[in-house]
Amino acid sequence: MKKLRVVASLFFICLTANSYLRAKIAIGSQRSFPDPPTDLTRVYYLSPERQLRPLPFEAGSLSLNVFAPAVADKVMRVQLTGAKSETVLAGDNLKFYVFVGEKMDPPPHQLVRLAGTKSRRELKISVIKGRKGYAPFAADTIRLEHRVLERLRVSAGPGRFIFVNYMQLTPINPLTAGEYAIIGDSLADMATFRVK
User: Fold this and answer.
1) Beta carbons of 110 and 138 less than 8 angstroms apart
2) How many C-beta neighbours within 10 Å does residue 163 have?
3) In this predicted model, which residue has the larger pLDDT, 101 or 168?
């Protein structure tokens, strides 16, 4: 009987150790994303060396305040100076990383294709009378897969904390050559890049 208890105990220890190792391997394989960077205001891309790099922000020029209710329905063009973005990325297997307030649903980030001329890039948007904000046209919008990677507790002052979601944005299809931007609520900080 004592021998049977020893064998049962050894079997339980081996089973527990095996379960622990499988759980540890599963957690390691799930953690296939980079650690969150410290600047929560930027939009990042994953470089070929698997490092997070921030996309440059460019200010879109627009003769309208998108944070005030529109006085009429309008179609307008947001303009960016320069024919090309300085950041060049490969179009396949792109992943972007952003931070979003916990209650933002859907997330405000959108990936759009920019039209270009010899001296500038632009994005066509619409505004609706009486409403704040803007919307890019569906033909210029690239569908994204949104994945929450981690929920972070962030200090918002002495004794105050907020929760922020660290998210991965992945284009559903590989991007073709051209100029792109990741946009949010404001057009003053468009995260731009080019695909060759």
Assistant:
1) no
2) 12
3) 168
State phi, psi for 14 to the nearest 5 degrees: -65, -40
Q: Are 108 and 165 in contact (CB under 8 A)?
A: no
129: CB partners within 8 A, 6+ apart: 69, 70, 71, 72, 73
For the record, the structure tokens of 105 come out as 């649903």
Coil, helix or strand for 150? strand
3-class SS shares of the chain: helix, strand, coil, % to 5: 15, 40, 40
What is the C-alpha to C-alpha distance for residues 149 and 86, in angstroms, rounded to an integer? 28
Tokens describing residue 69: 């209710």
Pairing relation of β-strands 57-58 and 110-116?
unpaired
- Which pairs from 128-131 meet CB under 8 Å and 24+ separation? 128/70, 128/73, 129/69, 129/70, 129/71, 129/72, 129/73, 130/69, 130/70, 131/69, 131/70
- How many other C-beta atoms are found inside a 10 Å radius of the C-beta of residue 122? 17
Question: Are the C-beta atoms of residues 182 and 110 closer than 8 Å to each other?
Answer: yes
What tokens were used for 116?
């270009």
Reported pTM: 0.79
Alpha-carbon span 74 to 36, nearest angstrom: 39
Q: What is the pLDDT of residues 113-137, one digit of tens each?
A: 999 888 999 999 999 999 999 999 9
The first and second tokens of residue 175, run together, are: 């991007």
Residue 155: strand, helix, or coil: strand
